[in-house]
């Protein structure tokens, strides 16, 4: 991240924080007054300046709230943690150097992007390590066969959702990892493909819903999301996902982290794979 970008990431206004988190500015001020969180820097004239890290913390609090924790407990969990963004792949990657600029996307757009990345992974067949985060098991089952196809040619394929238990059916099958009720990951949409020849990831964070009368949740769902083929950013996402898998299965987490440490990054000039993926994305978004 360049100097100018770093300064912008540490000089965000309350309006920008509101836009990126979905919280009203008045709610953010109320949190500050009642809980001392967030704790933005102040200019000499009294204006608040927030950082990307504080936005990640706010999103973690919102995610914990959506999973059933009370607001005081959610704030305490984030503030007291040495690694507040660690339960969240999105937060861990979004605050890292080189992270792409996020966009607010419709759920149908994420479906198209995901399908393009997943199909390209099958086409490449290049011994990838793959992760998918689906929030609900019901969102995963319709695309399970696609992940079985990916798993047949990958070194490891791991999927997260609110499964009842861990399921590992052996080589060539996706490993299902349950999400705890309080996990921030339950608010995220993730596709990660990490292989020596092809690296891509799509990571989204579901914004709080503002329902309007007569409209369905599906048509309103928006995600703050980014996608990238930068091998270093993809590897960062893979490492965080591996650690999250290790919370449920320590042996699996160790194995995934060892596999990642032993493999090279994808080519830093992914011209052909980027072209292939972009072509798929354009095609799938057009028909979404």
UniProtKB/TrEMBL annotation:
GO terms assigned for molecular function: DNA binding; DNA-binding transcription factor activity
Keywords, comma-separated and alphabetical: DNA-binding, Transcription, Transcription regulation
Pfam family of the protein (one): MerR_1
DNA-binding in keyword set: yes
InterPro entries listed in its UniProt record: DICT_dom (IPR019278), DNA-bd_dom_put_sf (IPR009061), MerR-type_HTH_dom (IPR000551), MerR_fam (IPR047057)
Domain annotation HTH merR-type: ranges: 11-80
Protein name as annotated: Unannotated protein
